[in-house]
Amino acid sequence: MKDFHDVSACPPAALPKDPTDIEAMLTVLVEAERCAVRGYTHICNLTAGKDHRTYDLSQAILNEEIEHESWFSEFLGEGPSGHFLRRGETSPFVGKFLR
């Protein structure tokens, strides 16, 4: 996993020293999600109209990352709720790739 992460576009998430500092923890998490959103947006832009399968998969993952970012952002009070609800089933975005 470390080798895979080392070639990713995002820096390692440095968790706060105090694990009870929830705001600091959420800030780290929201920044990690924002980096992932930028990365998958870039992949979508590179593959749009050229590599349909990679684009489709990247777009599905991008939607997941946007959803995660909105959760953490909402917890930090940065904006209104995105009203994303999950009922425990497989992701509506990447589920089709798991069949």
UniProtKB/TrEMBL annotation:
GO terms for cellular component: cytosol. Pfam families: Ferritin (PF00210). Keywords: Iron, Iron storage. Coiled coil: none annotated. Residues 16-78 form the Ferritin/DPS domain. GO terms for molecular function: ferric iron binding; ferroxidase activity; heme binding. One of its GO terms (biological process) is intracellular iron ion homeostasis. PANTHER family: BACTERIOFERRITIN (PTHR30295), DNA PROTECTION DURING STARVATION PROTEIN (PTHR30295:SF1). This is Ferritin/DPS domain-containing protein.
